[in-house]
Amino acid sequence: MKIGIVCYPTFGGSGVVATELGKALATHGHQVHFITYRQPARLDFFSENLFYHEVAVSQYPLFDFLPYESALASKLVDVVRFEKLDVIHVHYAIPHASAAFMAKQILLTYGINIPVVTTLHGTDITLVGKDKSFSPVVTFSINQSDGVTTVSQSLKDQTLTYFDIKRDIQVIPNFIDLERFSIKDRSHFKRAIAPGNERILIHTSNFRKVKNTGDVIRIFQKVNEHIPSKLLMVGDGPERTNAEELCRDLGVCQDVRFLGKQDAVEEILSVSDLFLMPSSSESFGLAALEAMACKVPVISTNTGGLPELNVNGETGFLSDIGDVEEMAKNAIYILEDNDRLEKFKDAALERAKTFQLSNIMPQYEEYYRQVIEKV
Ligand code: GMT
Prior knowledge:
Blueprint: E1 2-6, H1 13-27, E2 31-36, E3 50-54, H2 68-83, E4 87-91, H3 93-108, E5 116-120, H4 123-126, H5 135-144, E6 147-150, H6 153-162, E7 170-171, H7 187-193, E8 199-204, H8 213-226, E9 229-234, H9 240-250, E10 256-260, H10 265-269, E11 274-277, H11 286-293, E12 298-301, H12 306-309, E13 316-319, H13 324-335, H14 338-354, H15 357-374
Parallel strand pairs: 1-2, 1-4, 2-3, 4-5, 5-6, 6-7, 8-9, 8-11, 9-10, 11-12, 12-13
Helix pairs in contact: 2-3, 3-5, 8-9, 8-13, 11-14
Bound molecules: ligand GMT.
Ligand GMT binds next to α1.
């Protein structure tokens, strides 16, 4: 198949899923065309089946806001016509689904009926999408897509609750490339971070409010009172300064390292013992899956799709949003006993295997086939 993929080219979960999916489809013999405003962060590999088309938006003094959606729709028309694509797959509804709808309508005037698949990733529904300023457009473009997928059952349920949806939605969960995300021997790094063989806790995110990075620090402080430990904070974003200040206020700075954005997250996960994800909303929790693939159990909230990934009492624990006390207690329970920690680590990896790329990519291929056949 010739597949056009539209996504945000950043390190965010939706962009990562879109890029990894495109790379896997290309390896599987499909021709994949990425259409976005910058080379996707994870598009770091060469294949004769991979193409990148940049959406450039011209500056004009009249534009206070650049009309990206129009530029994207125009680029889609161009790429579909000249590359003869079979399907467009857009990741994250805003503004990709409505741009694809516009492109589809234009292409019909050329006698081309291109199927559009929209994958909803989370905040496009749970936070931004349901805002009044977007919801009519999000509802319309979901209903007009030829196929719609969500990354968890929970996100499907929320989509059906918040929006007036008149079509089927298929759940296709996030996936993991176990070749990349697997334990690497980085004992030198472990010795540098934890010279006294302390336990290593880790949090990776874009430090947005929804990630509750303050709770990460609060949980760590309580764990640190009982167990010699270090905390690695990976990523960057608007809440980082507050998180750093909280470390100072709670007196744990000497045991917390802010590492900023990192490309080789799998190497840092390889030396870690426990992943903290106290988010107030999480449609799936790709970062937690990445940790589990590197044998790191997860302390998370029970929100959104997290219970579909993290098995309570087996691969980690689930708690109510904001229940720092319980999350710390569960973290200590896992970390205080070597054999118990090993059990949780093994279970985390076993669970991650369910979501391996080779299980999930064929679901997208099959879905594209069904959608193409129907159009
Ligand atoms: O988590 C983020 O802030 C990034 C965000 C995105 O849209 O790029 O991630 C969302 O999509 C991921 C991939 O499908 C999911 O694994 C994340 O759970 C989801 N984030 C939220 O729902 C907050």
